[in-house]
Write a sequence for this structure.
């Protein structure tokens, strides 16, 4: 062999050594990246379907290459609007690479967002089915395989918060109603803390429950009445269906339930069945649900020591549950990660949603499904404020001790809360918050004193109202006042009298402030019409709004006539005056 050949070989060996050394230096960063992407499996796939177990082993090293090709193709199909084709490819990818969290996220998003809106909004039940498919994929399959992926918890929480809890989808009211009705089947209406404790105490298996002779006798009778209940794997589902729609079973089966009504055996089995469904179908950890209730539940405004359970009929509560569970199981408190910060944001924004629109009203309409409304819940203020302070403390160490955006948002939150509590009639609470605002935010980040916080409480409230009304003309003011009064009629119709009174007071204050800004208190000249005119216009607007059930509108008239006759008389006189004016205008036009 010639010297030249030896030199080439030596050169190649040196280059190979350098490259191997460089590659070994990158091993740690590659491993970290793989961990962050959830591609490192430290545990075996448990309870995996045979097809999944086979695919993850049989294809060996070629699996990654095939996944890359399918992933690029699926992304292209999504860009082309071929969502159903992309769905099929995503299913293949999740089979080949179940540890790839991003593809589960892609798959769920595609169903919940893209495929659902591809269906006409005249078919909300079909849209809802695809939204369910999206969140069930993450909840039932993806997280079970990837319990340490915070991305999956965040994506699941986002579907509940944004897709179901938001208003961007034309069918959002349908989604909210179906979710509320579904969870009410298991938790009932306004469940107490004791009820949650009763659910937690239920055994996890039917065999444990059957140790009670009375419950065993009840189930024996149920099986004798209808052989459908002999299948133990479907016993819980069939029982709950029997309680809801007895016509689907033999009459004798519901007769057994009737005979046991009021007994401890029926009550215990009913609790067991509901706890079983919450655990197995909804995938809820009942202990963690109760922990969230005790930590973030609404606080009784009359008794600060009385914390109530969260409203699990609201999608924001589901969003908060999954985000908080993700932080608990997959969070890294010692590290600053964007994924974790975004998940924290979901918990916080869920609490804000519960504060702003956290009370769910299901208004029953004979012969139809209930109409759903979401209204403010001031009882959630303490929980929202508590989490905000926790977030400020958490990110101070990561952001140089001064998370300006978080602190600035908290200041605005307190300002708005003062106005809301004042308008709702909780003046003492509003004054307490104003003193706190002065204490915590009087000095801005630049070291200057905020002069707007140095004035007396009532001056601050009036100034805030003036700021909101600043720059609006007479037409906008009219629309604003009518809108606020229409809300007051809605609250009065659903018997939420405190909120109704708060809206009336707010409308009156807006009216007074705008009148003074126009240079006088005399109505009708340069300023606004008389207040009774606004009450009448809002009343008519409410009665003509098809968004409210006819029964609700009719009951409002009856309630005002009986409980507030003076208001009813003012509205009647205004209607007569309005009709006379219209007739006068018609006659003038005919001349």
């Amino acid at each position: 062999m010639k010297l030249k050949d030896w030199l080439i070989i030596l050169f190649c060996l040196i280059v190979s050594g350098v490259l191997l050394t460089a590659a070994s230096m990158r091993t740690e960063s590659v491993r970290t990246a793989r961990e962050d992407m959830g591609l490192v499996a430290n545990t075996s796939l448990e309870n995996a379907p045979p097809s999944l177990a086979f695919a993850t082993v049989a294809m060996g090293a070629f699996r990654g290459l095939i996944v890359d090709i399918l992933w690029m193709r699926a992304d292209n199909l999504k860009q082309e609007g071929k969502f159903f084709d992309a769905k099929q490819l995503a299913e293949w990818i999740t089979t080949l690479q179940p540890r790839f969290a991003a593809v589960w996220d892609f798959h769920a998003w595609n169903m919940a967002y893209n495929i659902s809106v591809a269906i006409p909004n005249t078919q909300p039940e079909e849209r809802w089915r695809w939204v369910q498919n999206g969140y069930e994929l993450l909840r039932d399959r993806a997280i079970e395989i990837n319990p340490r992926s915070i991305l999956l918890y965040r994506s699941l929480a986002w579907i509940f918060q944004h897709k179901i809890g938001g208003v961007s989808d034309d069918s959002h009211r349908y989604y909210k109603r179906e979710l509320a009705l579904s969870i009410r089947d298991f938790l009932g209406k306004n469940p107490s803390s004791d009820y949650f404790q009763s659910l937690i105490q239920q055994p996890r298996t039917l065999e444990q429950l059957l140790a009670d002779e009375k419950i065993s006798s009840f189930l024996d009778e149920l099986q004798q009445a209808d052989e459908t209940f002999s299948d133990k794997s479907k016993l819980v589902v069939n029982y709950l269906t029997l309680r809801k729609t007895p016509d689907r079973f033999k009459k004798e089966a519901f007769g057994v339930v009737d005979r046991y009504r009021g007994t401890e055996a029926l009550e215990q089995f009913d609790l067991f069945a509901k706890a079983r469904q919450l655990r197995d179908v909804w995938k809820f950890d009942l202990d963690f649900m109760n922990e969230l209730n005790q930590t973030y539940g609404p606080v009784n405004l009359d008794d600060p020591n009385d914390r109530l359970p969260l409203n699990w009929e609201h999608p924001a509560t589901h969003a908060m549950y999954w985000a908080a569970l993700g932080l608990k199981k997959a969070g890294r408190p010692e590290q600053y990660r964007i994924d974790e910060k975004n998940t924290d944001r979901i918990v916080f924004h869920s609490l804000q949603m519960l504060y702003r629109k956290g009370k769910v009203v299901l208004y029953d309409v004979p012969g139809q499904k209930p109409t759903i409304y979401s209204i403010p819940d001031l009882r959630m203020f303490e929980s929202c404020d508590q989490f905000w302070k926790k977030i400020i403390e958490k990110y101070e160490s990561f952001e140089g001790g001064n998370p300006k955006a978080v602190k600035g948002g908290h200041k605005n939150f307190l300002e708005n809360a003062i106005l809301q509590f004042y308008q709702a009639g909780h003046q003492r609470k509003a004054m307490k918050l104003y003193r706190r605002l002065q204490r915590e935010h009087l000095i801005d980040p630049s070291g200057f004193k905020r002069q707007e916080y140095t004035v007396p409480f009532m001056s601050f409230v009036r100034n805030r109202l003036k700021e909101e009304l600043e720059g609006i003309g007479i037409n906008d003011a009219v629309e604003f006042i009518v809108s606020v009064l229409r809300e007051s009629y809605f609250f009065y119709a659903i018997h939420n009298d405190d909120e109704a009174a708060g809206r009336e007071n707010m409308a009156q204050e807006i009216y007074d402030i705008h009148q003074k800004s126009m240079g006088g208190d005399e109505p009708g000249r340069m300023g606004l019409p008389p207040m009774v005119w606004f009450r009448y216009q809002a009343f008519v607007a409410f009665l003509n709004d098809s968004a409210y059930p006819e029964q609700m509108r009719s009951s409002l008239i009856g309630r005002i006539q009986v409980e507030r006759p003076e208001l009813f008389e003012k509205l009647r006189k205004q209607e007569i005056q309005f009709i006379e004016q219209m007739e006068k205008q018609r006659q003038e036009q005919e001349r």
